[in-house]
Amino acid sequence: MVKIDHQGETPPYEQVRVHYAHAISNRELPVGAKLPTVRALAKDLGLAVNTVARAYRELEEAGLVETRGRAGTVVSANGDSNRERVRAAAAQYAAMSAELGLSSQEAMEIVRAALRA
């Protein structure tokens, strides 16, 4: 179950998005698993419907879920292919970093900076 920290600095929609993104990437939610409806989750969490809808929209844009109209929102099989694309990009980045003479530490600092941005 999602826990919302209403006093925290992270916006509620982002807390919902991160919760489901982690659950999907850790395979706690398998491909095809149905997410609660936007309205039901908003009610359970005490959030506005638009807040949950934004989180779901961002999950869909990332390819982690897909909305099937009246059938609801389900975990997409694209999540696995997206993970593979990221692994391939990381391997390419590692090779380029080595080719350009960057140390592992320098390369990781660049990645950390990019993730913070």
TrEMBL record:
Family annotation (InterPro entries): Tscrpt_reg_HTH_GntR, WH-like_DNA-bd_sf, WH_DNA-bd_sf
From the Swiss-Prot or TrEMBL record, what is one GO molecular function term?
DNA-binding transcription factor activity
Ordered alphabetically, the record's keywords are: DNA-binding, Transcription, Transcription regulation
Tell me one Pfam family matched here: GntR
Which residues belong to any copy of the HTH gntR-type domain? 10-78
Note the SMART domains from the entry: HTH_GNTR (SM00345)
Instruction: Answer yes or no on keyword Transport.
Output: no
* Xref: PROSITE patterns: HTH_GNTR
Q: PANTHER family annotated for this entry?
A: HTH-TYPE TRANSCRIPTIONAL REPRESSOR YTRA
Q: What is this protein called?
A: DNA-binding transcriptional regulator YhcF, GntR family
